[in-house]
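3.2 Worked example (two chains)
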Amino acid sequence: MNDQDTAVDTRPTKIMYVAEATAHGGRDGYVTSQDGQIELKVAMPPALGGDGNGTNPEQLFAAGYSSCFHNALILVGNREGYDLTGSTVAAKVGIGPNKHRGYGLAVALSVSLPVLDAGVAAKLVDAAHEVCPYSNATRGNVDVSILLG
């Protein structure tokens, strides 16, 4: 039996919303969203040989993952009746070559739950990691570490 046979199916049973975005020019161009809310210049970061004169896909992924994970954390916290005042989630997304002549990502989430004790905070973070769509999408594909501080 392989991991596919024992993995929990996290695919949606119903699509409730579809986001649309279009890239123009790859990593040295711009991105737009269908609704006009996003119109951003993208550029390679200096660490990858670019001028850094724009955002990049890793920053956008970090923004999406951190906000999604924080929302999942708020959801599970509210379900359990906990106060998440002042809580934050920061994400770092790294990119680098993989063993298959392509590139891969690694994610580090830093979660702050200042008004909760460590045991409760850890329980909520674990639950949020099961609920968050980004966590479900990356599980098994991307190394995700979570630091609770």
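3.2.1 Second chain
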Amino acid sequence: MIVAFSVTPLGVGEDVGEYVADAVRVVRESGLPNRTDAMFTSVEGEWDEVMDVVRRAVAAVEARAPRVSLVLKADIRPGVTDGLTSKVETVERHLSE
């Protein structure tokens, strides 16, 4: 499964990059395939391991912010691996035709 999620601290002002970095650090240290862009961090793996990473990423932000917002989107497709790469490659292939 692939989960794209965004963790936003609330009540800490406009500059939230430091807090978001705490969440991304948890994802990167998990060892699961992941990507971060301007809006979301995507992580790929089995249900329990991915949801544990999301939980810990939220907890990392929650430890420093009075309130946390979580947006999550999941692609649950058993048997598919390397979806983070293969899905993008498919789109790029169609664009090059």
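3.3 Remarks
The helical segments are 17-30, 47-62, 83-96.
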